[in-house]
Amino acid sequence: MIAFMFPGQGSQAAGMGKDWAEGSLVASEYFERANQALGRDLRKICFEGPEAELTDTRNTQPALYTVSCIAARLLFDRGLISDYVLGHSIGEYAALYFARSYDFETGLRLVQKRAEVMAEAASSKPGAMAAVIRFDPARIESICREVSEAEGLPLSVAGFNSPEQTVISGTKEMVEKASAVLKAEGAKRVVTLNVSGAFHSALMSEAQGAFQKVVEATPLRKPSTLFLSNHDARPATDVETLKLHLPRQLTSPVRWTDSLKFLKEQGCQAYVEVGPGTVLGGLLSKFDPDAPCAQLSDLASFDTAVERFKPCLCGLRPQEDGLT
Questions:
Q1: Judging by beta carbons within 10 Å of its beta carbon (0-12, 13-18, 19+), is residue 261 exposed, middle or buried?
Q2: Within a domain: residue 70?
Q3: How far is residue 106's CA from residue 33's CA, in Å, rounded to a whole number?
Q4: Which of 71, 182, 195, 257 has its CA 20 to 30 A from that of 3?
C-alpha cells in the first residue's frame, strides 16, 4: 500500500514548481489556471518570490495547493496512485483534490478563502507558535492546559508532528510562559516559529466560524481514495464528515503522528511526499526510520518514484477518474 503525503506551510520556497512547469505542459497549464482563478500572478510568486510575499499566508496557501496538485497530477499521469492520502494542515486540500472531492479551481477558491479568514483572524487576534523538540507530547499538552487555565488566555498544542516535535500555539505571552516551563522541565529546544498568527488554536475561532459558511456552500464529493483527517487521524469517508472537520481543523491540532501510526497499522509500505520540500519525509523518519519515502525535486524524480513504488500498489485501478 502507498500513502501520498501533501505538505503544509513551511515547505514553500521560491522556485517551487518552476522546473516542472518548464518541462511539462500540464504543469504549466495548472499555473495558468491558478492565475486566472485568483486574478494575480501566482506563478511568478512561486518561481521568484520574494520571500516576504511567498510567506504571506494569503499567497502561501494557494501556492502550496497549486504546486502539490501539479505533483499529484504528474504522478497520476505516470500511473502511480495511492491507497491513502493525507495532508499537513493546508496540505489536506491538495489531498482532497487527488481524492476527487472537487476539481482544481473549486479547491483553489476554498483554499484562498481559508487563507483570507486566517489572515484576518491573525491580524485581529495576534499570537505566536513554537516547536518543542524532544519532550513528552502528553506533558506538553498538560503544561499548555495548566498555563492557559492559570492566566485565562488561549494556549494549546497545534500539532503533534512526530515523537520528537510538538508545536504549541496561543497568545505571545502564553507561548513565552509555556516555553520557559518546558525548558525548565528539560525540553531540548523550544523554537519560536516565524508565522503570522496562532494557527490551530482558539485564536482562530472567528476564522473557523467564517470558514464554516464557505465550506457549507462549497460542493464536495465523497473521497475516492481513503483520506486521513488531521482532526482525528482517521479516514473521513463522507461529505458530512469533511464539512465538519475542515473548519474545525483551524482551531484543533494536526494529529500527524497518530496518522502515521494508523498507516503503519494498516500495513502501508511506501510514502510519497507530494509537493515541494522534504519536511514530511523528515517527520516520517523520526516516526519510523525504516519507512521508504520518495521526495520530488526535478521531473526525473517523478519517474524514479514510479519505478520504485509501483510494485507496492494494491492494484492499479483502471477505473480511476482523471484529475480535472
A1: middle
A2: yes
A3: 11
A4: 195
Domain count along the chain: 2
C-alpha distance from residue 313 to each of 43, 146, 261 (Å): 33, 46, 20
The three-state secondary structure class of 318 is coil
Q: Residue 12 has what DSSP assignment?
A: -
Cα–Cα distance for residue pair 267/1, rounded to 1 Å: 7
pLDDT at 320 (0 to 100): 57
pLDDT at 178 > cutoff 90: yes
Say whether both 176 and 232 belong to one domain. Answer: no
Helix (H/G/I), strand (E/B), else coil: 302: helix
Q: What pLDDT is recorded for position 318?
A: 43
Q: Which of 177, 196, 215 marks a domain boundary? A: 196
Boundary-marking domain end, from 153, 170, 196: 196
| Mean pLDDT taken over the chain | 96
Domain of residue 72 covers: 2-123+203-312
Q: What is the CATH number of the domain that holds 151?
A: 3.30.70.250
Note the pLDDT tens digit of each residue in 70-123: 999 999 999 999 999 999 999 999 999 999 999 999 999 999 999 999 999 999
With respect to residue 45, please indicate whether it lies within any of the assigned structural domains. yes
Asked if the structure places residue 321 within a domain, the reply is no
Q: Is 200 a catalytic residue?
A: yes
**Three-state SS across 197-254?**
CCCCCHHHHHHHHHHHHHHHCCCCCCCCCEEECCCCCCECCCHHHHHHHHHHCCCCCE
Q: Is 306 part of a structural domain of the chain? A: yes
Question: In this structure, what are the phi and psi dihedrals at residue 323, rounded to the nearest 5 degrees?
Answer: -85, 130
Given a contact cutoff of 8 angstroms between Cβ atoms, the answer to whether 168 and 132 are in contact is: yes
Model confidence at 317: pLDDT above 80: no
Give the DSSP per-residue string, 43-75: HHHHHH--HHHHTSHHHHHHHHHHHHHHHHHHH
In the prediction, which pLDDT does 324 show? 85
Q: Are residues 181 and 111 in the same domain?
A: no
3 state DSSP class of 132: strand
Q: 118 with 30, same domain?
A: yes
Residue of 11, 88, 200, 229 marked active site: 200
